[in-house]
UniProtKB/TrEMBL annotation:
Keywords: Sigma factor, Transcription, Transcription regulation. Pfam families: Sigma70_r2 (PF04542), Sigma70_r4_2 (PF08281). InterPro entries: RNA_pol_sigma-70-like (IPR039425), RNA_pol_sigma-70_dom (IPR014284), RNA_pol_sigma70_r2 (IPR007627), RNA_pol_sigma70_r4_t2 (IPR013249), RNA_pol_sigma_r2 (IPR013325), RNA_pol_sigma_r3/r4-like (IPR013324), WH-like_DNA-bd_sf (IPR036388). Belongs to the sigma-70 factor family. ECF subfamily. This is RNA polymerase sigma factor. GO terms for molecular function: DNA binding; sigma factor activity. It comes from the Bacteria. Residues 102-154 form the RNA polymerase sigma factor 70 region 4 type domain. Residues 2-67 form the RNA polymerase sigma-70 region domain. The keyword Transcription applies. Coiled coil: none annotated. The keyword Transcription applies. One of its GO terms (biological process) is DNA-templated transcription initiation.
Length: 172
């Protein structure tokens, strides 16, 4: 009597779990449980409804177990990621990079206004020397001088941050 619902229940479960093997497992377990109820002597006025209800509950349980497994996997990945975090994500390294960036920005801000403007337009806005010259109303050679001055100032800042001796000063 229950066998006539097998294909129908299998299609239902396959749509729900989107895995034919898992659907077959759910159907098999549903049949086993419903047959256990029937063999226990309990009344089954609607065997089809009981099969579907059992299958739905098994699918819900399966989803819950899968969610727990995924949560545990995420926790394990997070633990692994913390244990093997790249050095650039370490707090000390992030702080050092932030301080480095602040020093470079301070160096750029300390440049004379026209020099800073030429440097920013060229390096950050991507304008060519000629475009910067046209924008600022100065010669292309003057733009080059401004940019060289700014680059040298940034290089000096880099050297100071990296502990290199300043030009003209010798280590003892």
């Amino acid at each position: 009597m229950l066998e006539r619902y097998y294909r129908e229940l299998l299609n239902f479960c396959a749509r729900m779990v989107r895995d034919p093997h898992a659907a077959a497992d759910v159907v098999q377990e549903s049949y086993a449980r419903v047959l256990a109820v029937r063999n226990s002597g309990q009344a089954m006025p609607e065997p089809r409804a009981l099969l579907y209800q059992t299958a739905r509950r098994l699918i819900i349980d399966r989803h819950r177990r899968q969610a727990v497994r995924e949560h545990d996997d995420i926790d394990a990945l997070a633990d692994d990621a913390q244990a093997a975090a790249p050095s650039h994500l370490e707090p000390e390294s992030l702080y050092a990079h932030e301080q480095h960036a602040r020093a470079i920005v301070a160096t750029i801000e300390a440049l004379p206004p026209r020099c800073r403007e030429a440097f920013v337009l060229n390096r950050f806005e991507g304008l060519s020397h000629q475009e910067v010259a046209d924008h600022m109303g100065i010669s292309k050679n003057m733009v080059a001088q401004h940019i060289i001055r700014a680059v040298l100032a940034c290089k000096a800042c880099e050297d100071a941050l990296n502990g290199a001796p300043l030009p003209g000063k010798q280590e003892k």
